[in-house]
Amino acid sequence: MKKGRWPTRPVCSDVSSLSHGLGKWVSEMLIPIQKAQPSYFQDSYALKLLLDCLDLPYNAQLFTADATSMYTFIKTAPALASIKKHIDENVHSMSEDRKEALHAAMALVFNNNLFEFGDAFIRQRSGTAMGTPPAPPYATIFYAIHENAFLPRWSNHVLFYKRFIDDVIGVWLAHEDSEQNEQLWKEFQADMNNWHDLEWTVEDPSDTVNFMDMTISIVNGRIETKLYEKDMNLYLYLPPHSSHPRGVFTGLIFGQVLRTRRLCTHVEDAETSINEFFDRMLARGHKQESLAP
């Protein structure tokens, strides 16, 4: 039984709204800027390729961090001002007229998240306009501005650092003195949280972490990965009587098998996960002959 208030978030799809087309354009303009940030990575497989290149010292440990309601706590006015300053000073491939248009469009999109609830019309006064196309790159760039400023100070202790919107993974190099290491770790967390109203829950460094859809471990100075699935996952794959085109089922099977093979360091782990996927598809009503390659 849950006690207290349920946390709520104003997630409203703006499809077919007046601002949707403008939001799509803003997103197209922001995505290249998002991809240019040092902490950016596209997906789990891209992250795995980066991790595979690491040769870790004996004192290396993994850590993860998660932002508390990131979209909700990004205040609109300072975010727009910070992103405008970053674009004006660092994006040289965009003309001044295009920058001016982008800043005006961002202000329109993020200051005018309007929606209807019952008989009331509501305007979101602060926080990211969730449900709009540019929300992910907007949030990514906003915190990247802070990362670009504070992370260089930690180059002797943070060997690796990447972020997927509101999820961070990194490699911490522990100091030989345990007390000093604890103090440095606290200072690093304070630096992460020293950016407007954003708050990060940072897990203590360890040899193994669960991040996105991977379990990531340090083994003999190298990174090893395997598939991670949450305990609450119900595995409600499409049943065979669904009216979806047959190609959708083929794509589901090939996509899951490819994803598993890509994300697992060891073939044995991949085969275990694929066999589990096979059993779950049977449990959903699929026939063995339709699943066999």
Give the tally of β-strands: 9
Task: Name the average pLDDT.
Answer: 93
State the major sheet: 4 strands, antiparallel
Overall spatial form: globular
Would you give an account of this structure?
- This protein is of the alpha+beta class.
- The chain has helices at residues 20-35, 44-52, 70-73, 76-90, 96-111, 135-150, 178-192, 246-263, 267-283, 288-291; strands at 60-67, 114-117, 120-123, 158-164, 167-173, 200-202, 208-211, 214-219, 222-227.
- The strands form three sheets. Strands 4-5-1-6 form a four-stranded antiparallel beta sheet, with no helix packed on it. Strands 7-8-9 form a three-stranded antiparallel beta sheet.
- The chain starts with 19 loop residues before the first helix and ends with a helix.
